[in-house]
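Q: How would the structure tokens look for this protein?
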Amino acid sequence: MKRQISTSIEFAILVAYSTIAILFFYNYGLPSLAGDIPLQMYSDSTVYEEWALSGIAAGNITLVGVGGNLLGPVLVLTVFNFDRNYIHFFNIAVMLLSYLIVRRNIPVNRLYLLLGLLSSPLLFFSLFGVNKEIFALLTAACLAVSIRKRTWGWVLATLAASILARWQLSVFVAVMFFATSVLNPFRAKRALTLAILVGAISIVYPIFSAGPLEQIDLISIEGAADRASIGASGTYEKMQSIQRSYGYFLVLIPKMLQLSFGLIPQISLVDVNDFWNEFVLPAQCISYAVLALAALLTRRLTVENDVVFLICMFMVFFVVTPVYAPRYLYPAAVLLAIFVSSHQSPKGTRRPVKGFLQGSSR
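A: Here is the predicted structure in token form.
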């Protein structure tokens, strides 16, 4: 075990990071959200504000649906009365809470955990406006702890945080708890569990893409047309076509690689009007690559490790997305940071949730 940094140094790092974020917010983030400077430092923050305002005014807003999940953003906007200042400090508070949840419940090297979490460009710029990524961070932290603690309190906390981010994340959490419970006859065979999940998605996705998920698929097709108009290769869309033809098991790995690292060559500071897509997302892909390399260097990558199993299940579940959005993989980056900094032995606990589905997991 590497020597821990002192609590004072840990506190100083967190204070320094938060202070930089606050200064950056008032000098660039807030003017960007207000449209006062031609620098887009956010993804959908202003879109959520517009949807919430129009929905509340009309008295008709869908908070959770197949086409999108507005529960978290609308809740935050309503509680803080659309005040971007309060929302910024709320985001910082959630970030600190997420760190403390992991720090106090999982044996980790605190310096490595801080480096893994705070080096994320997506996290830094997500502190400025209302967004879902901050709840995705909280969900990943609670999920890692819940798999370790196996108590109902953490299970419910994870589900509550996940529904504020994306309904797909809530479905994943439910699937994850099923996969690690005694209801799964193959829970002791984690590689087989992953293979079954891949096979199930390969069969089910084409059926749902022509039904409940048709709206999302249409959005992805429109996005593909937009990317093609600016010279995109169309590789992701071709893999998506194979996925629609029961071929998810064939494109899982290449889709995962493109979602994780595909934007790295496109990093640029030339077009400040599209700063989010030209710099933030490619820089986040670089962060993914660094974390993946660090995980490989630990020589502890095995599905017998609880966090590694979580990451594998998450990637199988979310790489299915028809929308090319590397930020959807952010929870996996959080879990990678936890894994790299953790002192957990390769063997997982494999216990069912206490008070529920009791039984031997051997």
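The two ends are 29 Å apart (CA to CA).

Residues 224-231, 345-362 have pLDDT under 50 and may be disordered.

Upvote if useful.
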